[in-house]
Design goal:
223 residues, alpha+beta, binds flavin mononucleotide, 6 helices
Length: 223
């Protein structure tokens, strides 16, 4: 029963892209924390696919597998999750990533794959859902937009209303890992809550009730 508590759901409108193994992050943790800074301007250069995969893995990649007495297996991730229920998914709109088509993808932690969920037009529509103007965040030159989609009921089923709190806390932890990994890789990133929520939901095909965007991180080659 692989993925007993790990993520095993998701829609795939097309093929899966196997990501290269995450790049080892060599920077000292204290230096990474010191260097982390919101970067809002980008050169328009492409980011390597392995670096994008490293960000995804730092945010919610599987880092350990634990066997269960019943023969199943629990997939544990880089960020903690209340009850191991993982109510936050990572979707990635790719704009300038080497060896990756412009499109929208769901990160599948168990396989370290990206599952195509939308084409280039869908990715472009997501860019238009950003409320932050180009003068504030130069999103037109970004490499990717990483969207954190919460499905709070995954946690609320067990924890009641507190599960909503868990989903938001866990989204924050995922974003923090992504930003720190970006800093360690020398990429630019910025948290971005300036999104037109309804438009994001429409572009992603989620209902905004049972599944909703809670945060986003813009990533690119900073300059
Ligand atoms: C939850 C959250 C939402 C944010 N949303 C935006 C945003 O929409 N636009 C933006 O330019 N920066 C956004 N930021 C970045 C903050 O403005 C930034 O972290 C703050 O100015 C401190 O700067 P620093 O990150 O360089 O330390 C956000 C940060 C957080 C934590």
């Amino acid at each position: 029963m692989l993925g007993h508590l790990g993520h095993e759901t998701g829609r795939s409108a097309g093929g899966a892209v196997t990501l290269p193994a995450p790049v080892p992050l060599q920077m000292r943790f204290s230096e990474t924390v010191r260097r982390r800074r919101s970067q809002r301007t980008y050169t328009g250069e492409s980011i390597p696919l392995a670096q994008l995969g490293t960000l995804a893995s730092a945010g919610c990649g599987v880092t350990a597998r634990r066997d269960l007495p019943d023969g199943g297996q629990v997939l544990l991730r880089s960020t903690a999750s209340a009850g191991g229920l993982y109510p936050v998914d990572l979707q990635i709109a790719s704009y300038r990533v080497q060896d990756l088509d412009r499109g929208v993808y769901l990160y599948h932690p168990a396989s370290h794959e990206l599952w195509l969920t939308g084409d280039g037009t869908a990715a472009d529509r997501l860019l238009e859902t950003m409320a932050a103007p180009e003068e504030v965040i130069m999103s037109s030159q970004a490499g990717a937009l990483l969207l954190l989609i919460a499905r709070p009921w995954r946690s609320m089923r067990k924890y009641g209303p507190r599960g909503m709190r868990h989903a938001l806390l866990e989204a924050g932890a995922i974003a923090a890992h992504i930003n720190l990994a970006a800093a360690a890789l020398g990429l630019g990133s910025v948290d971005c809550s300036s999104l037109f929520d309804d438009e994001v939901h429409e572009a992603l095909g989620v209902d905004g009730i049972y599944e909703a965007v809670v945060h986003a991180v813009v990533v690119g080659v900073s300059g």
